[in-house]
Amino acid sequence: MNATTERDTSTIEFRLTAADRCDSCGAQAYIAAEVNGSELLFCAHHGRKYEEKLRSIATSWHDETARLVETV
Known about the structure:
By secondary structure, the protein is α+β, with helices and mostly antiparallel strands.
């Protein structure tokens, strides 16, 4: 079963801005991971690509990809 859930993002504080860029390709960053005291920023594509490996070593994982499907 494939269900789509809509999240109410009106009360979520976003910390990534349009000025934050993906460390891999330069696109807008929607994911921030802290690894060994350094923050890594990723677009949705590269965040998903590296998520499995990074989550095992990251001390934090901040994901704002839900902003990509927001409706006004």
